[in-house]
Write a structure and sequence with these properties.
heterodimer; A: two-stranded antiparallel sheet; 5 helices; 5% strand; flat; disordered C terminus; B: 3 domains; ten-stranded mixed β-sheet; three-stranded antiparallel β-sheet; 15 helices; 39% helix; 19% strand
């Protein structure tokens, strides 16, 4: 792995658990487990339940239309997945560096790219797969700008 | 109106970094290219493409963080912020959630009550979105992805701003700091500086927090202040009437001067952040940070110290003269050519800024140079132009630029100092304003100012004020002798400017 400056950058060899925890605290951020309500699933160990309400909320966020049968199925499947992953909760992870990335061991730091332009797509190619386009732009269903919504009369 | 309540304001500022290429791909990031000519599979979110972070974007972010006195994290990571909107082709924005690039830090600004210091909570890197165009399209909205993927710095202040004016001053100081580091041009009208605000009110002296309202769509420094002033009084009205302020996002309507609730629902705030699987954590070596720190240019605070203790300028002047690098440079360079700090400072802070504001120009967009300004000051010193003509000359230097002496010729601004050339005008003015002349003769020295104005008007500001004043006094003294004979002494030194 090479940095953009040509020389391989020495990778840090120090344990990073502490800086991470400190950085999180400095940033005043919630630690895992205290995220938005729907992340919090009931139960620990092997039994994890996902409520119907949670499933429906996620479906709305993901723009998925689920009928009641499908929502029930999702409830069951998501519960099973979380129960499987939930096994990790049985471990004591105190002082263990969180795994932010599965390649963390192989790729201890993010490779960076020099700030040098590469040729972009030709305008034709960029729009080639667009279902609709106009004046060099992608044409999408109308989006009402916020300003226009109540701005009536302003012309 | 707000005496019962005190506002608590925090600003969230987005700054576009002036890198040559985008944050995660090699597309050029230049402003103003034809739509969708600076896009590639990565920034269009096409399947199979992978982001690679721009080293310069990280370097710029660190540079800005250091200028703000932030602590740069040794490890930070990128996260996906998920939402659906046509300006976001991937349906997520690469941002930083729980491990931002930098935290801490502060921005100082000068208020009439003295210096204030507002904390910076965090600073992180993310990518910009595309642009939606609505004008003149019947069938839908148009999307231009040229800006999509351009590196953005998000700078979040602590909720420590106590008034809309403080918010404006904070924003001015922050912009100046960022501009001095050279990582962004921070031009609000181009969208390279954007600002959202969180506003809440609480009973004065209370430590409780009121309901937080997010205000968006403020597109200029003026509108930031105006929008916040509106929002503070709106919330105060609601609370005074015993109501509750709803926690919501509101948009500023510049034309109507009001904020109105956003259409988007609560769910829009559930972004389901999760770690960006395409980017491993970024580890930042302390040596790199120190290298960047060593390369920081002189920042506004150091420059202000130099202006105050080195040149003896008042602190307020020093703040104005460091409000942008361009203004600071103009001052420095003019001073080198015309070494009178007070005089240069007065012109730069006064007429230069007035002309720029009146014409809604940034200094960089104007034609004004240090040579031009210094040349103008020398023409004043040599008595070749009057102060009034200098103002007209300055307009020309800002708008058209050019060599001051030649502009003076071209614009006919040369000062007329020959008494013979002014005698006619003076006679006319005295003859046509008998009552003012009488006032003067009865001891009202102020009447002379009016008559001087008349002479200036008739000579398009070209009359040498000292010569004109002497001629006026002489002429009126003559009138006085011809009339009652009780004219005041006309022998003294000529009137002022």
């Amino acid at each position: 792995m090479r940095s953009a400056q040509g020389e391989p950058r020495p990778l840090l060899g120090h344990p990073v658990a502490d800086p991470l925890v400190r950085a999180r605290k400095r940033a005043g951020l919630r630690l895992p487990g205290s995220g938005p309500a729907w992340y919090n699933v009931a139960g620990g160990g092997g039994s994890v339940a996902v409520s119907r309400e949670t499933v429906e909320h996620i479906a709305v966020l993901a723009r998925l239309g689920l009928d009641p049968a499908e929502a029930g199925e999702m409830e069951r499947q998501l519960g099973a997945i979380l129960a499987y992953v939930g096994k990790l909760r049985e471990l004591d992870t105190e002082g263990v560096e969180p795994t932010f990335h599965v390649l963390g061991r192989l790729l201890p730091s993010l490779p960076l790219r020099p700030d040098e332009p590469l040729p972009p797509l030709s305008p034709g190619a960029a729009l080639a797969n667009a279902p609709a386009s106009e004046r060099g732009c992608f044409l999408v269903p109308p989006v009402i700008p916020e300003e226009a919504e109540k701005g009536g009369g302003g012309g | 109106m707000t005496s019962e309540f005190e506002p608590v304001i925090g600003l969230e500022v987005h700054v576009e970094l002036s890198t040559r290429t985008k944050a995660f791909c090699g597309c050029p990031a230049t402003f103003g290219a034809p739509p969708n000519t600076q896009v590639c599979p990565v920034c269009l979110g096409l399947p199979g493409s992978l982001p690679v972070l721009n080293l310069k974007a990280v370097e710029y972010a660190i540079r800005a963080a250091l200028a703000l006195g932030c602590q740069v994290a040794r490890v930070c990571k990128f996260d996906r912020k998920n939402y659906f909107y046509p300006d976001l082709p991937k349906s997520y924005q690469i941002s930083q959630y729980d491990l931002p690039l930098a935290t801490g830090g502060a921005v100082e600004f000068l208020t009439p009550g003295g210096r204030k210091r507002v904390g910076i909570r965090r600073l992180h890197l993310e990518e910009d979105t595309g642009k939606l165009l609505h004008e003149g399209v019947e069938s839908g909205s148009l999307v231009d992805f040229n800006r999509c993927g351009v590196p953005l710095l998000e700078i979040v202040s602590e909720p420590e701003l106590a008034s809309p004016e403080d918010a404006r001053l904070y924003l001015t100081a922050l912009r100046s700091l960022i501009q001095f580091t050279g990582v962004s041009d921070c031009r609000m009208e181009r969208g390279s500086l954007r600002c959202d605000a969180n506003v809440s009110l609480r009973p004065r002296g209370s430590r409780e927090w009121g309901a937080l309202v997010e205000v968006k769509n403020m597109n200029s420094f003026r509108s930031v202040k105006a929008a916040l002033e509106f929002e503070v009084s709106r919330q105060a009205r609601v609370l005074s009437a015993g109501g509750r302020v709803a926690r919501e996002t509101r948009h500023w309507d510049e034309a109507r001067g009001v904020t109105f609730p956003s259409r988007s629902k609560e769910e829009a705030h559930d972004y389901r952040y999760f770690p960006e699987p395409d980017l491993p954590p970024l580890r930042i070596e302390p040596e790199w940070v120190e290298e960047i720190r060593a390369g920081l240019p002189e920042l506004p605070e150091a420059r202000r110290r130099r202006l105050v203790s080195g040149l003896g300028l008042p602190e307020y002047n020093a703040w104005v003269l460091t409000s942008s690098p361009a203004l600071a440079r103009l001052f420095d360079e003019t001073l080198r050519l015309y070494p009178d700090p007070r005089e240069v400072s007065n012109w730069v802070m006064g007429d230069v800024l007035r002309v720029l504001n009146a014409r809604r120009l940034e200094l960089e967009e104007s034609k004004l140079t240090a040579e031009g300004l210094a040349g103008m000051l020398r023409l004043i010193d040599r008595g070749l132009i009057s102060g009034r003509a200098a103002k007209a000359l300055l307009e020309a230097l800002v708008v058209d630029g050019g060599e001051p002496a030649r502009l003076v010729e071209e614009l006919g601004l040369t000062q007329v100092s020959d008494p013979a050339a002014l005698a006619g005008v003076v006679r006319e003015v005295v003859a046509q304003n008998p009552s003012t002349v009488a006032d003067y003769l009865s001891g009202k020295e102020k009447a002379l100012t009016f008559l001087m104005g008349q002479v200036m008007k008739r000579t398009s500001g070209r009359a040498n004020p000292e010569v004109a004043a002497r001629l006026l006094r002489d002429a009126m003294a003559g009138e006085g002798r011809a009339g009652s004979g009780a004219g005041p002494d006309s022998g003294g030194e000529a009137g002022g400017r």
